[in-house]
Amino acid sequence: MPEQSTGPRPTLEAVADRAGVSRATASRVVNGGAGVRAPLVEKVLRAVEELGYVPNHAARTLVTRRNGAVAVIIAEPEFRIFSDPFFEQQVRGISRELTAHDAQLVLLWVEGPGDHERISRYLGGGHVDGALAFSLHSDDALPSVIERARIPVVFGGRPAPGTDPSVPFVDCDNRGGAREAVRHLVGLGRRNIAHISGPPDQTSAIDRIHGYRDVLLDADPSLLRRGDFTEESGARAMAELLDRRPDVDGVFVANDLMASGALRTLRERGARVPEDVAVVGFDDMASVVDRTVPALTTVHQDIEGMGRLMVKLLMRLLDGSGSGVPASVITPTSLVRRASA
Amino acid sequence: MPEQSTGPRPTLEAVADRAGVSRATASRVVNGGAGVRAPLVEKVLRAVEELGYVPNHAARTLVTRRNGAVAVIIAEPEFRIFSDPFFEQQVRGISRELTAHDAQLVLLWVEGPGDHERISRYLGGGHVDGALAFSLHSDDALPSVIERARIPVVFGGRPAPGTDPSVPFVDCDNRGGAREAVRHLVGLGRRNIAHISGPPDQTSAIDRIHGYRDVLLDADPSLLRRGDFTEESGARAMAELLDRRPDVDGVFVANDLMASGALRTLRERGARVPEDVAVVGFDDMASVVDRTVPALTTVHQDIEGMGRLMVKLLMRLLDGSGSGVPASVITPTSLVRRASA
DNA sequence: CGGGGTCCTGGGAGCGCTCTCAAAAGGGGG
DNA sequence: CCCCCTTTTGAGAGCGCTCCCAGGACCCCG
Asked: How far apart are the first and last CA of chain A?
């Protein structure tokens, strides 16, 4: 039972004294006890217990140059990314994996370019061992701010072209997933397959368009409508599609939210899904997929797993064990068939 | 322009040498420069700039015993609290205020009792100067875990009875706000005013019930229905209410989400709002209030402000300037009149 | 022009820990 | 039983910074 000491916290020195060993030996025990004989280990451990000793983190960091903390940089350019379920899942994965590595999550909330100076100084100040960031918009200056800090970084999502290509990232196989979705539609015998895409400044949206084109090399431009990943934009895009191409019989929508909107429009226009128009989404977002009518066929990606992977990559970077820079990881996707296609 | 030094980061010593002053003086300048003559300040600043000096955080913490970081403890008992807009606003306020104080936010994500040991050790380990936590359910063991760490803490929301009463908290005036809402309904000439409450293990829900009873001392129990703060539960409670008390002409709902559900039920049952039944919510949640038909009259609370206040209170605790323990803060609420009442 | 402040500055002692290196202890073979 | 090698332990030197304190510079007034 630790003593309820009111005074200053006990130091390693105190533990060593109590155990009758040197500070060095006490340190060894506290750090795993390799190379110390059992009886001494026992003594030190008892002293630690009795004194309620907890290592001083700052002192340890000062000499080891490691502080067991990782920054997660959240940029909130315009929307409420924090309450985005996609994002939440990823952060959850990160948090869990970080815990497994006994590392802490320091949240860096960036609200605008005015914060860049602060962030840069913080990252460069040795407060954290590394950083995790998310590539959002290609016009964002944040990646370069992070790079300037010369600190190990892993991105979530493929960064926009122009970002230092040596920075590893974790992303799902957007292009492959899109291909699978479109092939499924083709396999269903659909002839006029459209695509409702995301904003062209996000690499995930671009990659999904590429996947669509990979399969439908000669797709007519009139079959391509652009949305912005919101439900509303999906509904609108579907309406436009129906107006221009009444013959459309299949749609691959770049995310579930827009697919939900598209489904709504289809219902309002009296089109049967999947009989008249088959719909495939992307993300397999639980909160959307279940409530959709009919249930949405979509491309699944393991978002939490991607978060964990980001941490694993960063840890490998920090250990330096993986010779050189670890390669980026593209996680697999899989088509989940439900009623809409 | 900072030198692109590849080697080890420059130390204060290096800065002092370059500026031709002592380490002590360099330190003084770096920390504000009080009591140093202008020309020397100038010289040191230039050296800092030229060397690209950034203070070593660990070394500083080692001697000052302050590390400029605050833990935000997020317990996720069952639901996705992280994506809760209420919560997001509060964390945003915390983040902003922390930034203003030049302090960092360390996110501690608690997923279950299994994490308590880890959290406790972390908080007690001197990694952070203080902690911010949210009082969620009265049966949660977390508050006591935090208390055990003997670290300054401020709660968001009034803690359940049984928690150490000396721990300061920030909460809005739930009871007063509820009173105002009910009085408004009374002022509208409503005779049979019902209340749809939140779960009884949350103090905010209890306080709002109290406020309702303060005004309607003799309210019949049949006018009180319990929900769980979800839209669905609000819809259900309203339906039950209508079944038992068809004469109800006013409802105070304990939060906007449930009020939105109640409004839906009212519409489905063909009751006009506010003509037949006037409805008042609580929270003034932007994402709900705007989309409701009719627009929801509700009790406004400054959620982001509460987050900021939590930080301010904690900072006062840490400074020790406020003699003794700062008092908890109850922030005011205000009725926002829209169409529903 | 000297005395007594006041204001600045530098020296140096740690903060608590890790880690290197040398000394001590233990062990085995000749 | 002694010597050499391996394992275990301890002494001590920092890590980079702040802060106390003493000494020097400077200033104003008599």
From this structure: 63
Burial readout A121-151 (b: 16 or more C-beta within 10 A, e: otherwise): ebbbbbbbbbbbbbbbebebebbebbbebeb
Tens of pLDDT along chain A (341 residues) come to 444 445 678 999 999 999 999 999 999 999 988 888 999 999 999 999 999 899 999 999 999 998 889 999 988 764 454 556 788 888 889 999 998 998 989 888 888 788 888 888 888 777 899 999 987 776 677 888 888 777 899 999 998 888 888 889 999 999 999 999 999 999 999 999 999 999 998 899 999 999 999 999 999 999 999 999 988 999 999 999 999 999 999 999 999 999 999 999 999 999 999 999 999 999 999 888 878 889 999 999 999 999 999 999 999 888 865 556 668 999 999 999 999 99
Instruction: Determine the 3-state secondary structure of A110 from DSSP.
Output: strand
Domain boundaries, chain B: 12-55, 69-171+305-331, 174-300
CB less than 7 Å from strand D: which protein residues?
A 20-25, 28, 35-37, 40, 59, 62-63; B 8-9, 11-13, 23-24, 27, 30-31, 53, 55-56, 59-60, 62-64
User: Domain A174-300, what fold?
Assistant: Rossmann fold (3.40.50)
Cβ distance A115 to B99 less than 8 Å, yes or no, reads yes
Q: With a threshold of 0.90, does the pTM exceed it?
A: no
Tell me, which fold does domain A12-55 have in CATH?
Answer: 434 Repressor (Amino-terminal Domain) (1.10.260)
Chain A residues lying within 8 Å of B53, measured CB to CB: none
Any chain A CB within 8 A of the CB of B124? yes
CATH number of this structure's domain B69-171+305-331: 3.40.50.2300
Query: Across chain A, which distance is largest between two alpha carbons, in Å?
Result: 87
| Equal fold, B69-171+305-331 vs B174-300 | yes
**Amino acid whose CA is nearest the C1' of D16:** B59
Please give the nucleotide, over all strands, whose C1' is closest to the CA of residue A24: D10
